[in-house]
Amino acid sequence: MHFLSINELVLALSLGAGLGFFGGLFGIGGGIIAIPLLVLGFGMDQPLAQGTALVLMVPNLLVGWWRYSQRHPLALRHALLIGLSAALTTWLVAHFAARLDPKLLRGLFSVFIGVLAIRMLLRRHGRGGAAELSLNVRALPLVGMAGGSSMGLLGIGGGLVATPLLSGWLGQRQTVAQSLSLALVAPSSVVALATYAGAQRVDWSLGLPMALGGLFTVSAGVALAHRLPEKRMRAAFAWMLLTTALWLFVGSLMRGQ
Questions:
Q1: C-beta neighbour count of 232 within 10 angstroms
Q2: Regions of the chain short of the pLDDT cut 50
Q3: The pLDDT value given to residue 221
Q4: Residue 169 class from Cβ within 10 Å (0-12 exposed, 13-18 middle, 19+ buried)?
Q5: Number of CB atoms found within 10 A of residue 73's CB
Q6: Nearest CA among 153, 158, 160, 161 for reference residue 184
Q7: Residue 189 belongs to what domain range?
Q8: Cα–Cα distance for residue pair 131/199, rounded to 1 Å
Q9: Is 112 among the domain residues?
Q10: How far is CA 237 from CA 22, 65, 88, 159, 225, in A?
Q11: What is the DSSP letter of 117?
Q12: Is residue 5 included in any domain, yes or no?
């Protein structure tokens, strides 16, 4: 682990603060933006970027989970069903992903978030003003396994997979879906970080100050999420994903990778 200069430290804290805010706003850990930044801006390979981003994501997700649960308390049974199934799946998949070819992993990452964004934009008017449905508890382990697979393979995406499933398939409001997805990704992110660290795929000197910066802003993002209109939240979430996917794809082409 090397020590950052003052300028690098300020940059890392500032990036962490911005990512923490957006992580709280969208019920994610900020890794969806942090990973392309680390790949394109800091020259990291994809597995190292994913592991380093998890250092930022873990505290952001834990704080976000706590803040969302204050507004949308979850039954312990629901949290355990979705959290444990996701954590176990994350552990199994992350052991495989940490040893994949970086180019293959970067391609999977870019395609994944691009397809997800397009799907959300095409479906965001689908339910219209429909009422929230009763939660199908038996489906929660399936959502947990889907989100955990993404967390293990890509280091992110548990919430990106779970939130559309919970809001679209299971008919939950966006903020409720984000609260449930945080119960999935918060424990899964801890498991993923431990696995990537064990494979020496974490830059702690950069990840720790980013995590510290994020802790100061994630609560503000959560607060804003509960003031924005539902339709605007869904659209902003989808456009953010699509922009990130295009940025990563074009940036990789320009670098010849």
A1: 9
A2: 126-129
A3: 83
A4: middle
A5: 10
A6: 158
A7: 10-254
A8: 46
A9: yes
A10: 10, 18, 27, 11, 11
A11: H
A12: no
pLDDT of residue 214: 86
**152 domain residue, yes or no:** yes
Tokens in use for 188? 């899964």
Q: Say whether 170 sits in a helix, a strand or coil.
A: coil
Is residue 54 one of the residues assigned to a domain? Answer: yes
Length of the chain: 257
Q: What is the DSSP letter of 127?
A: S
Two tokens, residue 23: 């992580």
Give the whole-angstrom CA distance, residue 89 versus residue 143. 11
pLDDT value for 27: 61
| Most distant pair of Cα atoms in the chain: their distance | 53
- Please choose, from the candidates 202, 222, 180, the residue with its C-alpha nearest in 3D space to the C-alpha of residue 30: 222
Number of domains in the chain: 1
Residue 132: per-residue pLDDT: 62
The alpha carbon of residue 218 and the mean position of all alpha carbons in its chain are separated, in whole angstroms, by 13
Burial track 10-31 (b if 16+ CB lie within 10 A, e otherwise)? ebbbebbbbbbbbbbbbbbbbb
| Assigned token pair, 249 | 């794809």
Q: How far apart are CA 209 and CA 71, in angstroms?
A: 29
Q: What is the pLDDT of residue 31?
A: 77
61: which DSSP letter? H
> Among 242, 70, 72, 62, which residue's Cα sits nearest to residue 173?
72
